[in-house]
Amino acid sequence: MSSIVLRSRTISNNFSSKSFSQRGLCSGVVSSSSDPSKGTIPSSQSILSDQSTPPPPAPKVAPQVSGGKIWSFVKYGLIAGVTGTTGYAGYLSYKCSCEEVDHKAKALRAAASYAPSEDASAIDKYGGLLYSAAMTVPAKALESYLDLRRLVEEHLLEYTEPTSDKLLPDLHPLEQHVFTLVLDLNETLLYTDWKRERGWCTFKRPGVDAFLEHLAKFYEIVVYSDQMNMYVDPVCERLDTNHCIRYRLSRGATKYQDGKHYRDLSKLNRDPTKILSAHAFDSSLQPENCVPIKPYKLETDDTALLDLIPFLEYVARNSPADIRQVLQSYERKDIAKEFLERSKEYQRRVQEQKQQGRLWRL
């Protein structure tokens, strides 16, 4: 009986302690939930335990390799190489012609195609192969430069050179003795002016009709202008109603050089000893064939064309062997005035000779 009583007492004590602990826990939860401003107070043992634990060690950072410096060095090296190559190519394009560059590139091509002899040692053969391999890249680059330059120059020739090497058709066999008179259009035969009140207007030079009609009997007259054909053709049709002008050449027949259009008389398919060009000296590539004429600027008393008729008729009638020597004798003077003075001097000498002949007979 006693043992039974003891077991019942121990069971009741255990039950009472469990219920007390459950009540304490429930009261702690309720108090914490009912007053949220009051936090839970940690125990001193937990604080000491937190302070006693050491902080975790910082992770070790591996040293970085300086790849950025290497890349920047390579980048700037490539930029410097491309800039130097471009500058040298520009210098060659400005200083040397394509044929001169091709001639200078023979040594580089020979170095790229180096072949060691059979008697050479292994070291010499290996060194020769390395040298040939090193020269192959510059040789290929130079070949590419020459190909590109030839292509560009071929396209530029379409705009800088005359449209043909023979701008005029072959002269008739019965007219081989005829001289060719090349005339400019603007400021030689006419003048084009623009004003706000009336716009564009074209004025004929005084005496132009008589000049063309008379010299068409002796010369093959060609208009050679640096204007566009859309301007030259309609103006010549209204100017030359009697069809004294045989051929018209416009800007496409000129040579573009140093920012200016030049008349190239060598492309006319005519004998240069029989060409007279009434142009300014600075607008022709053959100034030895030029007959200087005063530019027309709407002067009412202009007689430059009519004054040239005696000289041009004299040349056509006498047919000198080389007109360039005749023009050189005038030394770029006013040919009309100089020819008039020479004609008067010649007539004076003839009169003197006649008088001397009469005196001798007497």
UniProtKB/TrEMBL annotation:
Subcellular localization(s) per the UniProt record: Mitochondrion inner membrane
Gene3D superfamilies cross-referenced by the UniProt entry: HAD superfamily/HAD-like
Ranges of Polar residues composition bias in the record: 40-52
Description of how the protein assembles with itself and partners: Component of the TIM23 complex.
Boundaries of every FCP1 homology domain copy: 174-315
Residue ranges of the region described as Disordered: 19-63
Function noted in UniProt: Essential component of the TIM23 complex, a complex that mediates the translocation of transit peptide-containing proteins across the mitochondrial inner membrane.
Keyword annotations: Membrane, Mitochondrion, Mitochondrion inner membrane, Protein transport, Transit peptide, Translocation, Transmembrane, Transmembrane helix, Transport
This protein's name: Mitochondrial import inner membrane translocase subunit TIM50
Keyword Protease recorded: no
Keyword Transit peptide in annotation: yes
GO cellular component, one term: TIM23 mitochondrial import inner membrane translocase complex
InterPro entries: FCP1_dom, HAD-like_sf, HAD_sf, TIM50
Organism ancestry: Eukaryota, Viridiplantae, Streptophyta, Embryophyta, Tracheophyta
Principal location listed in the UniProt entry: mitochondrion
Superkingdom of the organism of origin: Eukaryota
Family: Belongs to the TIM50 family.
Gene Ontology terms: biological process: protein transport
Bias kind Low complexity: ranges: 27-37
CDD domains: HAD_FCP1-like (cd07521)
Membrane topology type: Single-pass membrane protein
